[in-house]
């Protein structure tokens, strides 16, 4: 879908707050193709430099051959990034209070050279702007929609 428009995708998964109640966020972020090709390098470096210096768990978990559910110990908070068919990386979060919930967006913001306010406190869009984006995405999705009968 996005490849036909010259875009690449990065999938971010953040699972935090497991002590109180489960809260998992999964996001798909389209990026320009050139930026998407460099994303694995940026994310690997950022994950290796984040969180505590001395960790109980492995800092960087390679997901190229395994699923995140089989790689991260059950019940622990984690962040993972997936690059589509290339696999991705996961990181067990040692201290949820120090780990920013916008970690993945911060890396992407740095890759795109965006201001911090863009990912920290996103501006609320009005209904008409959201509607236009939904209609545009519906047009993009139409050729891939498997729920509609092919004529």
Give the spatial strand order of the biggest sheet: 2-1-4-5-3
Number of H/I helices: 5
- Run of helices and strands: EEHEHEEHHH
In percent terms, what proportion of residues is strand? 15-25%
**Main beta-sheet annotation:** 5 strands, antiparallel
Fraction of residues in H or I helices: 25-40%
The shape is globular
Gyration radius (Cα, Å) is: 17 Å
Number of strands: 5
Uncertain residue ranges: none
What's the overall average pLDDT, rounded? 84
Class from secondary-structure proportions: alpha+beta
First-last Cα distance? 20 Å
Protein architecture, described:
With 151 residues, the protein is α+β, with helices and mostly antiparallel strands. It has five helices and five strands. It has helices at 33-49, 68-71, 103-111, 117-120, 127-141, and strands spanning 7-16, 23-32, 61-62, 78-82, 88-92. A five-stranded antiparallel sheet has the order 2-1-4-5-3, with helices on one face. Helix 1 (33-49) crosses helix 3 (103-111).
